[in-house]
Amino acid sequence: MRGYEWESLLLVGASGRPQVVAMRWWERRKGVPGQQRQQQESLLSRVAQRWGRQVRHIFDRGYGHGPWLWLLWRYRLRFEVRWKKGNKLIDAEGRERKAWEIARGKRPWGEARQLWDTHSRVYRSTRVLAFPVRHPDYQGPLWLVVVRQGRGREPWYLLTNEPVETIAQAWEMVFSYVSRWKIEESFRFQKCELLIESVRLRTWQAQRKLLLLVTLAYGSLLAMLGPPLRMACCHLLQQWCQRADWRLWRVKAPLYRLRWSLGRLWQAHPPRWVGWRPYRRPAHLSWPVCSVPWWMALWHQCGYPF
Fold first, then answer.
1. With contact defined as beta carbons under 8 Å apart, do 83 and 173 qualify?
2. Is the pLDDT assigned to residue 293 strictly greater than 70?
3. Alpha carbon of 171 to those of 9, 81, 114, 156, 180: distances in Å?
4. Where are the alpha helices (DSSP H) in 81-203?
5. What share of the chain is helix, strand, coil (3-state, %, to 5)?
């Protein structure tokens, strides 16, 4: 994003909705390297102090390198990293080879299982295998889980520091990595629906205020999907965002419909902002509800300067 950087940390379970743990925004400065790495290390140290080994950290390909693995070993965290097939590891015989070369010729474990491809929305026949490996920048033992989804598709290589000696443990690693798609959907929702990339402000302090409001709004939307407000959320969707397709009612986290229903509710019944500022009736806001431009227009209409 232009002018600022964004780092997010989400907590995702085997089922249900994700939870926002932390979101950080900082101004991009020219000639100052390592700003993003400093923010990542700060978040990682806080999570290590709070949860330790109670959670498993899932990382994509961009984190599969030696310095990050050393940092994970330093905090003694459980992790799983999507490993690039061309990156080298040390096999059981002590030879340094690429990941695909180590896995070549090894037969998968057990029978194939049908794994749901969230991106393509189809089931794929999937088989797995795992074997121990080592990395020169990581002092502890490592296992490489290979996920094969049939001909014509590139296998997944998942590097973890947890023992993978049975087929049940291998599938557990696969399902943990598949759950990361909820995080990708979260980023897409914030970029497309909340329009965090459309900030029309010059100063960094004003931008930071709006981004913090959007973070709070996104956390509130996720909280409305929890058990305490589940019935109220269902009633809101039924009254203000009806859909005839039965498949939409089976969605566990209908964030898009929830935002649409809130937008229609507030347009029909505008909220009265009570405070020490004089009340001004909000004009028609054409921006998506809870987006950055929406907060900006509402902020100006309520008489608050930046």
1. no
2. no
3. 24, 15, 12, 13, 15
4. 99-103, 167-178, 181-192
5. 40, 25, 35
Kindly tell me the burial class for residue 239, based on how many C-beta atoms sit within 10 Å of its own C-beta (0-12, 13-18, 19 or more). exposed
Exposed/middle/buried for residue 224 (C-beta within 10 Å: 0-12, 13-18, 19+): middle
Residue 194: helix, strand or coil by DSSP?
coil
Helical H runs in 146-254? 167-178, 181-192, 204-224, 230-240
Residue 173: how many other CB atoms lie within 10 Å: 23
Q: What is the mean pLDDT of residues 269-274?
A: 65
For the stretch 126-148, pLDDT in tens is: 999 999 999 988 878 999 999 99
Q: Which residues contact 290 (CB under 8 A, 6 or more apart)?
A: 193, 194, 214, 217, 218, 221, 259, 262
Residue 279 has a pLDDT of: 43
Cβ distance 140 to 159 under 8 Å?
no
Q: Which residue has the tokens 């557990």?
A: 172
The per-residue pLDDT of the chain, averaged, comes to 81
First CA to last CA across the chain, in angstroms?
A: 21
Q: Is residue 289 scored above 90 in pLDDT?
A: no
Strands (E), the chain: 4-11, 19-27, 56-59, 78-82, 88-90, 96-98, 109-117, 122-135, 138-148, 156-160
Q: Looking up tokens 């929406």, which residue turns up?
A: 294
92-106, 126-140, 215-229, range with the lowest pLDDT = 215-229
- pTM comes to 0.77
Q: What is the pLDDT at residue 182?
A: 81
Q: Is 220 helix (H, G, I), strand (E, B) or coil?
A: helix
Range among 1-15, 69-83, 107-121, 249-263 with highest mean pLDDT value? 69-83
Q: Please give the Cα distance from 30 to 90 (Å, whole number).
A: 38
